[in-house]
Amino acid sequence: MNDAVQAGLWGLLAGAALLLGAVIGFGVRVPQKVIATVMAFGAGVLLSAVSYELVGEAYEQAGLAPAAIGTIIGATAYTLGNLWLARRGARHRKRSGHHTAQPSWPP
Question: Considering the domain boundaries, does residue 56 fall inside one?
């Protein structure tokens, strides 16, 4: 089988799984706890993929101390930015279920 055709079939299979999940999600009432669990798992997978790719490469190029310091500074900056946004009303941006009024800008 041609490599391009094989790649296309694998892409079709992956896309079909996405569509199947959308159809199931549209037709079936999924509890919030299940949704939160699946999203947390996906976030963990994404974080581990980034860690293996970026932190591993930083370690190989610069050593342990710069890689660890950069990782800690990046995680701290992300956390502080997330807290700052949450305090300014961003925690309500993706609520499902009941809708809350969006805060006006500037406050």
Answer: yes
pLDDT at 56: 84
Residues 6+ apart with CB under 8 A from 93: 102
User: For residue 1, is it within any domain?
Assistant: no
pTM for this entry: 0.49
Do residues 18 and 82 lie in contact, with contact meaning Cβ atoms separated by under 8 Å? no
pLDDT digits (tens, 9 = 90+) for 39-52: 899 998 988 888 88
Q: Whole-angstrom Cα distance, residue 42 to residue 47?
A: 9
Does residue 67 sit within a domain? yes
Segments forming the whole domain that contains residue 54 = 30-87
Q: What is the total count of domains within the chain?
A: 1
pLDDT score at 71: 86
Handedness of CA 74, 77, 83, 84 (dihedral sign): negative
Answer whether residue 102 shows pLDDT above 60.
Answer: no
- Contact between 89 and 101 (Cβ < 8 Å): no
